[in-house]
Amino acid sequence: MTSTTSLSPSIINYRERHGRTYSNYEDVEDWYPNDEKQQGSLEIMHQMMLIYDKGKLFQAPVENPQRLLDVGTGTGIWAVDFASRFHSASVTGTDLSPIQPEWVPPNCSFELDNANLRWNFPDNEFDFVHVRGLTGSITDWEEFYRAAYRCIKPGGWIDVGHEKLFLRKVMEVVSEENRYI
Fold this sequence. Notes:
Layout: H1 9-12, E1 15-17, E2 20-22, H2 36-52, E3 67-71, H3 77-85, E4 90-95, E5 108-112, E6 126-132, H4 141-151, E7 152-161, H5 163-173
Parallel strand pairs: 3-4, 3-6, 4-5, 6-7
Antiparallel strand pairs: 1-2
């Protein structure tokens, strides 16, 4: 079995638990909901990251990326922003849930994919792999990084961000009077 597949009706018949919906992709037990409430949280987190990083989408010293992979793209907002800023780049976002927008820049596409299975991308395919917000979703980080490095061209970069580290830094820089806005 491959890690990507065509969209079937069962994929959008999400599992429901405690009033929240979750991915129904190949019976994967994802602990992140995919409902509108979670999508809103992902959008807010993206905006917070942009504010914290002074508008930068990534930290890696990538100057002219041509092929980019956004693993665990969620709503796709990061991939869409990247594609909008780097018009010559081809951006592919992958996720368990098809919750990305239909209208995206022509250089941006999305695939339904399970990052815990074998990646279907060829060796040396990407200049840049972006990973954010997958804490608790990856079952074997060593294998995950092996797959990412296999897909990166020589001289390419992996940019990884985790929520706990980010939130701790945000709380350090947010002033006391604005902390609860």
